[in-house]
Design goal:
The chain is of the alpha/beta class and about 475 residues long. Helix content is about 50%, strand content about 15%. The chain is built from 18 helices and 15 strands.
Length: about 475
């Protein structure tokens, strides 16, 4: 707790009395300094409590004297009576009141050395308390980091230790962790300050809060922002510095670990593409504890190097159970997850393609990559391979003729669905998307495979077509696209 004129006056043995400047009694006293100079301002650092008996103080000097003290950022003035002045001059009291400078009367029985000792003892106690608090805070943060419970635990503990809010931001300024959750509201106004912090730290005022912004790591891979209504004290600053070092080390450790696993996943993907499925799946189970679910669709992400790096970072932090790997200038994800297909919406310059094949991994990858390139060319977030292929064919067909063909072929199915007895069109589309694989299509629809078989039998009956014929399947798929 910082020593203030109010706290000093509260020490009754000193007998101090407040004569002026009560509004400034809660300012911090950094030191105490006796002086009889008419202008001591050149020798002050700011924050001092000055003690004087007014030996050189003459009539008409009060206004200039107080103005110089205020200009030097003095915390207060103690005036000793009984030596050169029987009482504190009225003009000094008036000038101090107008300037808001705390003015304390020091009675005859109180020597200046007693005030000096009181201030020194309080400052020593404050420094000891700060050291103890710093040491305890550093120990608690270190123990939290050693538990490897993630950066979130460290951020929450730091917020408790400094009695403020904390944000852990990535290099782009997006929130990775927040404590408390309401601190996320400061992320947007903070972004303007992040561009000014490449290394080291910066003090800023954001939305009325005093904020310390620390760059993490040597390549600015993220930022730590700590804020509150008041500026951090010395102990709080040391604790934040410790948290910054721990988070930077953890970030570098995670980066090295992530690079190792990226290389391993890329190698496993090459084995899968080369047909060494059992070896790849066995290695994946040994290293990751689980293997990618095959067969299944493949998603390919294309875009700028920065967009792909951002996608990998999100996949590593939010989709640990998904199997993904870099392949050339693309990111390949085995399995189609809604969250993965949302990545292009979150990351500028990223596009996704989804395969139609679910059996051959290399074929599915090629299909997905072609669809992703089509999405990039068209400026779309994602494209499905089947849709891409159908769109290419539809461009060669007269639209009116295509619509008439689709109405004739699918009309009986649409009429059947209108009765509400089943969903033939949706089931047919899903079954064709999965290349006729009953189990995979049934799982996607959430029905039993026998139910799906019955629906496809009804499709064949109503359409009068043999679904086992590749040509018929192509016609049905084309009609569905129209």
């Amino acid at each position: 707790m910082a020593l203030t004129p109010r706290a000093l006056v509260a020490q009754r043995p000193l007998g101090l009395r407040v004569l002026a400047g009560r509004a400034g009694l809660d300012r911090e006293i950094t030191w105490v300094h006796p002086t009889e100079l008419g202008d001591p301002s050149p020798y002050l650092d700011g924050g001092e409590l000055l003690l004087t008996t007014g030996l050189t103080f003459g009539s008409g000097q009060a206004g200039d004297y107080v103005a110089r003290l205020v200009g030097a950022d003095v915390t207060g003035l103690g005036f000793g009576v009984g030596l050169s002045h029987a009482e504190v001059p009225a003009e000094l009291v008036g000038a101090a009141e107008r300037a808001g400078l705390p003015l304390l009367e020091v009675p005859v029985p109180t020597p200046f050395i007693a005030i000096t000792k009181a201030v020194s003892a309080a400052l020593a106690a404050e420094q000891y308390e700060s050291l103890v608090r710093t040491g305890r805070g550093q120990q608690e943060l270190t123990r939290t980091a050693l538990r490897r419970s993630g950066p979130g635990a460290l951020v929450r503990r730091l917020a408790q230790l400094v009695d403020g809010w904390v944000l852990l931001l990535d290099g782009a300024g997006s929130v990775r962790e927040a404590a408390p959750a309401s601190a996320r509201s400061f992320a947007r106004p903070l972004r303007a300050e992040l561009d000014r912090v490449r290394t080291g730290s910066r003090l800023a005022t954001v939305a009325g809060e005093e904020v310390v912004i620390q760059a993490l790591g040597t390549r600015t891979r993220g930022f730590l922002a700590v804020g509150g209504p008041a500026r951090l004290d010395a102990a709080g600053q040391h604790i934040v510095t410790t948290a910054t070092a721990l988070l930077s080390l953890a970030q570098e450790r995670d980066r090295a670990r992530g690079a190792m696993f990226r290389g391993l996943r890329a190698g496993l993907l090459r084995l899968l593409l080369d047909g060494s499925t059992e070896l790849a799946l066995g290695t994946a189970r040994t290293v990751f504890g689980e293997a990618p679910a095959l067969p299944g669709p493949v998603v390919v992400l294309v875009g700028t190097a920065r967009a792909r790096a951002a996608a990998l970072e999100i996949l590593e932090s939010e989709h640990e159970r998904a199997f993904f790997a870099e392949h050339g200038d693309t990111v390949v994800v085995l399995g189609e997850e809604p969250a993965v297909l949302e990545l292009p919406e979150r990351i500028a310059g990223l596009h996704a393609g989804v395969s139609s094949s679910t059996v051959d991994v290399e074929l599915a990858r090629r299909q997905a990559e072609q669809a992703a390139e089509a999405a990039r060319s068209a400026g779309r977030s994602s494209v499905r391979s089947a849709d891409h292929a159908a769109e290419g064919l539809l461009a060669l067909i007269d639209p009116a003729a295509a619509r008439a063909f689709a109405r004739e072929l699918l009309g009986p199915l649409r009429e059947h669905d209108a009765t509400g007895r089943s969903e033939l069109l949706e089931s047919l589309r899903c079954w064709l998307e999965h290349n006729g694989h009953w189990d995979a299509a049934a799982a996607r629809l959430g029905v039993h495979r026998h139910t799906l078989r019955n629906r496809m039998a009804k499709v064949a009956e109503l359409s009068g077509r043999d679904l086992g014929s590749p040509g018929v399947r192509a016609e049905l798929w084309l009609a569905l696209q129209v």
